[in-house]
Amino acid sequence: MDKGWFVVIIVAALIAAVIVSVLRGERKLRERIEARFGKRPESVDETDHIAVYFKSRQTHDAPMHYIDHMTWDDLDMDKVFKYMDACQSAVGASQLYAMLHEPCFESGVLEQREKLLTLLDADAGIRLKLQVFFAKMGRPLGHALASLVYGVSEKRLKRPWLYTVLALLPLLFIGVIFLNAYAGGILIAVSAVTNGVIFYRTFRRIETEVDAVKQFSALLWAAGKISDTHALDELALGQDIAEGYMLFRHLGGKLSGLTQQKVSDFDFLAEYIRAIFLTNIRSYNRIIKVLDENTKAFRRLYRSVGELDAMIAVLSFRKSLPYYCQPEFVTDSRFEMDGIYHPLIEKPVENSFVMVRGCLISGSNASGKSTFVKAMAVSAILAQTVNTCMARRFVMRPALVMTSMAVRDNVTAGESYFVTEIKSLRRILDKLSEVFCICFIDEILKGTNTAERIAASAATLTYLHGGGCLCAAATHDVELTRILAGEYDNYHFAEKVTDEGVVFDYRIQSGPTRTRNAIRLLDFMGFDKRIITEAEQLAENFDKTGKWPESI
Question: Is residue 481 included in any domain, yes or no?
Answer without folding.
Answer: yes
